[in-house]
């Protein structure tokens, strides 16, 4: 499929940057598999989570809500195969230590399939480590962003220095033009919202 083929190009670009920029070989990221499946009825413990796609989070074990609550944001992201592209991007941009050292922050994590929506010029832009780091910081907000805060609308400032517009349309929580697939996921040092598009700062 063209959709998956283009996503593979994005993954290859990130992996290539990791090999040249970090000096270590990253784990092979999973090929994006499209939108996460709709969830089965969630257990009581997930009542605080928002988004219609939480079904890609396992009920127990690695990558589950319980497991991620005991991990830092970076490790929590790496534990789920559907978030492997962004996890590779964090390593490629050499931002693991910076994010691990932060406390009480919010990370908007694009699901793997979100990267297939990037244009060729976007991919070219991301080949430079400094640009990739800026894009990742554009997904990060200092402090906890709650579902109530998103629903209230307005904006927050990302670490990139640019604004992210918040809002709610029907039952869908929105950040700029991205929709929250599954959010308000607790980790040891922050909160994760999985989104369906990559948030790009103005170039």
Provide a concise account of the structure shown.
The chain is α+β, with helices and mostly antiparallel strands and about 200 residues long.
Average the pLDDT over all residues and give the rounded result: 83
CA distance, first residue to last residue: 30 Å
**Helix/strand/pairing class, anyone?**
alpha+beta
Lateral arrangement of strands in the main beta sheet:
2-1-7-6-5-4-3
Helix proportion range = 25-40%
Q: What is the N-to-C order of secondary-structure elements (H for helix, E for strand)? A: HHHHHEHHEHEEEEE
Number of helices: 8
Shape annotation = globular
Biggest sheet character: 7 strands, mixed
Low-confidence stretches: 1-9, 15-46
Structure, explained:
- This protein has 203 residues and is α+β, with helices and mostly antiparallel strands.
- The protein is 33% helix and 19% strand.
- The chain has helices spanning 2-21, 65-68, 73-78, 84-92, 96-101, 120-126, 129-137, 147-152; strands spanning 105-110, 140-142, 155-157, 163-169, 172-175, 178-186, 190-195.
- Helix 4 (84-92) crosses helix 7.
- The chain is globular.
- Mean pLDDT is 83; it is low at 1-9 and 15-46.
Summary keywords:
203 residues, alpha+beta, seven-stranded mixed β-sheet, 19% strand, globular, disordered N terminus
Q: Helix and strand layout, with pairings?
A:
Elements: H1 2-21, H2 65-68, H3 73-78, H4 84-92, H5 96-101, E1 105-110, H6 120-126, H7 129-137, E2 140-142, H8 147-152, E3 155-157, E4 163-169, E5 172-175, E6 178-186, E7 190-195
Parallel strand pairs: 1-7
Antiparallel strand pairs: 1-2, 3-4, 4-5, 5-6, 6-7
Helix pairs in contact: 1-4, 4-7
């Amino acid at each position: 499929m063209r959709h998956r083929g283009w996503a593979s190009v994005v993954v290859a670009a990130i992996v290539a940057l990791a090999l040249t920029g970090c000096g270590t070989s990253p784990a092979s990221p999973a090929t994006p598999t499209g939108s996460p499946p709709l969830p089965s009825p969630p257990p009581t413990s997930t009542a605080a989570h928002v988004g219609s796609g939480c079904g890609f989070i396992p009920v127990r074990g690695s990558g589950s809500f319980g497991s991620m609550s005991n991990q830092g944001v970076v490790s929590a992201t790496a534990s789920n195969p559907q978030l492997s592209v962004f996890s590779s991007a964090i390593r490629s941009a050499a931002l693991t230590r910076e994010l691990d050292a932060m406390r009480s922050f919010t990370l908007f994590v694009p699901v793997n399939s979100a990267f297939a929506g990037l244009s060729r010029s976007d991919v070219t832009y991301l080949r430079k480590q400094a640009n990739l780091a800026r894009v990742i910081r554009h997904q990060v907000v200092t402090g906890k962003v709650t579902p109530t805060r998103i629903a209230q609308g307005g904006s927050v400032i990302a670490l990139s220095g640019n604004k992210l517009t918040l809002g709610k349309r029907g039952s869908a929580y929105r950040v700029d033009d991205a929709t929250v697939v599954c959010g308000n996921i607790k980790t040891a040092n922050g909160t994760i919202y999985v989104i369906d598009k990559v948030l790009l700062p103005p170039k």
